[in-house]
Each structure stands twice: as C-alpha cells, then as structure tokens.
Automatic annotation (TrEMBL):
<protein>
    <recommendedName>
        <fullName>2-deoxy-D-gluconate 3-dehydrogenase</fullName>
    </recommendedName>
</protein>
<dbReference type="Pfam" id="PF13561">
    <property type="entry name" value="adh_short_C2"/>
</dbReference>
<keyword id="KW-0521">NADP</keyword>
<comment type="similarity">
    <text>Belongs to the short-chain dehydrogenases/reductases (SDR) family.</text>
</comment>
<dbReference type="InterPro" id="IPR020904">
    <property type="entry name" value="Sc_DH/Rdtase_CS"/>
</dbReference>
<dbReference type="GO" id="GO:0016616">
    <property type="term" value="F:oxidoreductase activity, acting on the CH-OH group of donors, NAD or NADP as acceptor"/>
</dbReference>
<keyword id="KW-0560">Oxidoreductase</keyword>
<dbReference type="InterPro" id="IPR002347">
    <property type="entry name" value="SDR_fam"/>
</dbReference>
<dbReference type="InterPro" id="IPR036291">
    <property type="entry name" value="NAD(P)-bd_dom_sf"/>
</dbReference>
Length: 233
C-alpha cells in the first residue's frame, strides 16, 4: 500500500513500533521521491495514542495530514474459542479495533475542528464478513471494524470525511506464512480463488491510491475487496 501511495506522489508518515527498524522501507520510499517521516508508537499501549497525531503534524512537510491508513493488525492462529486466553483476546482487539477507533477519533476531531476534509482507509478482512474458525479474537475484531467503518462514515461523510475499507483476500505476507507453508491448506484455498492465485502486496496499489485520492470523493462507507473473487465464490 505504502509503495502505491509513494508512486502516486504522496508524502508519508509511518507509525511503527520501537522494536522495528523502518529504515529500509524509508529508503525505498525516498527513492520514489516521497518525503517520509516516522513516528514511534506501540498500538497495544493506551498511553501512546495521544502522541501520534501531534507528532505527525509536527513532521509533516505540509503541516497537515490528509489521509489516515489504519493498517496495523495481528492475530493468534489455530486455537479454538474454548482454548483462547484472555491475553490473546485483549491484545488482538486492542490492536485491531481499539487502536483504529482511537486514531480515527483523533484525526476526525482534528479535521472537523480545522474545517478540513479527510480520508480514513481501514484494512478489513474476509473475516469481517464470514466467520473464521480458530481465530475468534481476529474474527471478532474484523467484524467490528466493518461496523466501525460504516458507522464513522454515517457520522462524518457530511463533514467531508470519507471512511472506507480495503478487504484483503488470501495474500502472501508474513502474517499468512503458516498457511502458505501448509501445502495442503494452501492448495485447498487456491481452488476457491477464481483468479487462480494468491494475492501479493502489489495488488493493493490501485485500491489504496483510489481511496486516498479525489477520485473517491463520492465513495464512503464502502469496502473494496482485493481477493481474486474469493468472497463471490
């Protein structure tokens, strides 16, 4: 997603955990001509949310922020509901839905108070629409995210704030590495994808640029599926 935005000419501010090093990603984005800033914050910590927007505004080359992309996410795999620990539930919902609400609230309040338009793009999931097995915290968080996207859109679209989501299908990433390594499961899922392949991160470039740009000014409360036709099958 971030590469697509950089290629389209956006200036970027990346929020990352202190335990991660974004320097390689920053260099790639700068090579595309983007101005890139970084903010360190732990989305599983309630104490750090209030610092993100002020830091972003401080380092923004334009002094403003026009688009919020809520792309952080996590899950715990392969445990039934009866064996799911409280810490798994609490942590997944904190990162996947509470952080989205708190960041959206901060940015929405900023745009409204400044009389500015803005765009919020959330990363949803197929499990926002179908019940996932052995990933109950993740499924619950992504179902809530779909409702949050529509609810915020209903409240804020008249204020010039568009709220939409991108719905990834089965994409080859670090988060799906266990599924990819399971050859039987990988092949079974592949049979259910009409496009005949798993997706890759580059498939999100078009949708993210569309939702971040003026081309989507009349699109709000919607979900764009990037799933090779999986949900329709």
């Amino acid at each position: 997603m971030v590469l697509g935005l950089a290629e389209a000419g956006a200036h970027l501010i990346i929020v990352h955990r202190g335990s991660t090093d974004p320097s390689e990603a920053v260099e790639k984005l700068q090579a595309l001509g983007a101005q890139v800033g970084t903010v360190v914050a732990e989305l599983s910590s309630n104490e750090e949310f209030d610092t993100i927007l002020p830091q972003a505004l401080k380092i923004s080359p334009t002094g403003s922020v026009d688009v919020l992309v809520n792309n952080a996410g996590m899950s715990y795999y392969r445990k039934g509901a009866e064996d799911t620990e409280d810490i798994a539930w609490d942590t997944v919902l904190q990162v996947n839905i509470t952080s989205v609400f708190r960041l959206s609230r901060a940015f929405g309040k900023y745009w409204i108070s400044e009389g500015k338009k803005g765009k919020i793009i959330n990363t949803a999931s197929l499990y926002s629409f179908i019940g996932g097995q052995n990933v109950i915290p993740y499924t619950a968080s992504k179902g809530a995210l779909h409702s949050l996207t529509q609810g915020l859109s209903n409240e804020w679209s008249k204020r010039g704030i568009n709220v939409n989501s991108i719905v990834p299908g089965y994409i080859i990433t670090d988060m799906t590495s266990d599924l990819v390594k399971d050859k039987e499961k990988y092949a079974d899922l592949l049979k259910r994808i009409p496009a005949g392949r798993w997706g890759n991160p580059a498939d999100f470039k078009g949708p993210i640029v569309f939702l971040a740009s003026a081309a989507s000014d009349y699109v709000t409360g919607d979900s764009i599926f990037v799933d090779g036709g999986f949900i329709a099958n």
